[in-house]
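Example record for the data management plan.
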Amino acid sequence: MSPKRAPGRVVLLRCRAPMLSSGLVRSDLAEMAIIHCPACNRRVSSLARTCPHCHEPIGELDQAERDKLAFRRWRAQLYRTRNISYLSMALVVIGTLVWWMTPPRGLVPPVGTPAAVLMGVGLVGYLGSWGWMLWLRYAGAPKRPD
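Corresponding structural encoding:
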């Protein structure tokens, strides 16, 4: 149905309540409020069961959901640890390239200060991340959720 337009007049259309893809009318939805997560103090939906930012439980969770949440946190920590080890190894490689490019050319002593700092920070970061990764794998690994 198209409204008739008259010059200089505003036409208001009456429409039904908006339908969602699930077939529900918007007024049929549960009321939602924005609350703050008790752990990270970021804004979260009141209908959420866990915080999407820090994965802390907000609503009530059964044991299977708690196990799944613990496994998800552990996997995220393992992912961050791997990324730190990759970044550290990149620093070692960049430090080696800097050492090779500075005079005297080649990998001959003495090592310049920038190259030594890059390689030292990279090596310490790499060893630390591998230690953390081994601890996560063997001492801090939660049981797998079913």
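Summary line stored alongside the record: The radius of gyration is 29 Å.
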